[in-house]
Amino acid sequence: MILRLNADGLEERFPFLRFACVKLVKMDNLVARELNTHLEVQRRIDAAGSQLRVPRLLAHVRRRESEEAGIILERLEADAHNGSLQTFVEGLRRGTPTRVLRLTSETAADIVSAFNQFHRLGFIHHDVNDGNVFLANATHRDVVLPAAYGRQRPTVRLVNRADIVLLDFERTIGFPQENAASYSKEIEAENEEVRAMLKEVELEVSADDADRDVAEAYDEMLRRRIENDRRASKIA
Ligand SMILES: Nc1ncnc2c1ncn2[C@@H]1O[C@H](COP(=O)(O)OP(=O)(O)O)[C@@H](O)[C@H]1O
Ligand SMILES: [Mg+2]
Questions:
Q1: Which of 2, 25, 53 to mutate to test the pocket of ligand 1 (most atoms within 8 A of CB)?
Q2: Residue % of the chain over a pLDDT of 70
Q3: Cross-strand pairs, 2
Q4: Cβ of 23 less than 6 Å from ligand 1
Q5: Which residues on adjacent β-strands are paired with residue 57?
Q6: What is the pTM of this model?
Q7: Closest ligand 1 atom to 2 CA
Q8: C-alpha span between 72 and 95 (Å, rounded)
């Protein structure tokens, strides 16, 4: 769970908290693991001069009698242009089911590339989900589709580009970079999970494609989905 610290006036007393957030972790061995892994991730990123982004780990707090420990992280901006993929998807769905979030092929490729870099540094994330992928500085545009797609006109919010930040190293394992070959099966399995996650949200269009191309790609995606559902129900 992530706590934002602006609730009880703490921010006024400790201005640095404006730039921090606390992740509470149950006080079992996961804390030590997440802390150590996060530090190791940062260390390898720095050593390799990698472009991969993760929130910087600022500090951690433990209270002797407490069941929980806090991991203090650089706080990533959360607004219309910054948020986890999950918050983007759910934020749009809430209220109007006809608004959907889709990623351009560029954004999807950048997410794939972030996980590839992670693997190359010698890590397997082990918790691929849309809550653990943060899109920073996202640029997007809304494309209103023709009414033919249903009674209401759906709107596709297309994330053109974003800086990808990987989150949540609770289950991450690290291995020596030179051992990558012996982890190739696990890496391939994780790549498959990344592809499965993106399949839900990617639209095969480019940031500078025309609205008409976006509408066509969306149509094609729906058609394929209906086709797959039909095939699946035949098999069942
Ligand atoms: N450094 C951060 N700055 C801002 N928001 C964050 C940060 N880290 C995580 N979050 C938000 O909190 C959510 C949960 O964080 P995460 O580390 O994935 O914890 P959990 O173990 O609860 O899944 C993320 O999906 C994201 O929306
Ligand atoms: Mg998470």
A1: 2
A2: 91
A3: 23
A4: yes
A5: 73
A6: 0.91
A7: 12
A8: 33
